[in-house]
Specification:
The protein is an alpha+beta fold. It has a single domain, classed as Roll (ph1033 like fold). The protein has five helices and seven strands; from the N terminus they run βαβαββαβαβαβ. Strands 1, 2, 3, 4, 5, 6 and 7 form a seven-stranded mixed beta sheet that branches. The protein starts with 10 loop residues before the first strand and ends with a strand. The relative contact order is 0.22. It binds a DNA duplex (12 and 12 nucleotides) through loops.
DNA sequence: GCCAACGTTGGC
DNA sequence: GCCAACGTTGGC
């Protein structure tokens, strides 16, 4: 009998600009689900395609706002599939080069809101946490809009917040 | 394939 | 609005 070992769930952090799409906007969607589309960076595209799996958990992070930080948790409810917003002329994520080929090279996943923290876990507070010193998010010049989170970091951050489960 | 110019991200 | 970091583009 061959033992098939299920890969451990992974943890991620996904950034969004709340003035465009906030955690609460996600929660307001039917089923609390939205396609996480508009990623236009190859490194991130490859992660969405190859590494982000059904059931993985995600910190939802607000950037470019008065208090940047982690606001809630989501779950991957659909694995990577073509991001067709690249072909949609009316989309803010329209990609002319892709549209000319009629084929989107970009990938999205579906994310479902799972819980909100009572207070934002602010970036400035995360920076004070020694156990998080290796986090991608805290690296100088870190710009990846989707990034892996180590299980220890995930647990540590959970211990910093007051999570209200929602879904 | 090098690399300068340019564009974008995102905290501050 | 500034600017550091980094990705992309395009001339050569």
């Amino acid at each position: 009998m061959v033992k098939v070992q299920k890969a451990a769930s992974r943890y991620w952090l996904m950034k969004t600009e709340p003035h465009t799409f906030s955690y609460d906007d996600l929660h307001a969607r039917p089923g609390h689900i939205t396609p996480w589309d508009g990623v236009r960076n190859y490194q991130v595209r490859n992660m969405l395609r190859d590494q982000v799996k059904l059931g993985d958990l995600v910190f939802i992070y607000h950037s470019s706002c008065p208090e940047p930080g982690i606001v809630g948790i989501g779950r991957v409810v659909r694995e990577g599939y073509p991001d067709l917003s690249a072909l949609d002329k009316k989309s803010p994520y329209y990609d002319e080069k892709a549209a000319k080929k009629g084929l989107s090279p970009w990938i999205c996943v579906d994310v479902q809101a799972r819980g909100r923290f009572a207070q934002t876990i602010a970036l400035k507070d995360l920076r004070q946490e020694a156990p998080l010193s290796d986090m991608e998010l805290l690296r100088r010049g870190s710009r990846l809009s989707v990034q892996p989170v180590q299980p220890e970091a995930w647990r540590h951050i959970l211990s910093l917040g007051d999570l209200k489960a929602e879904a």
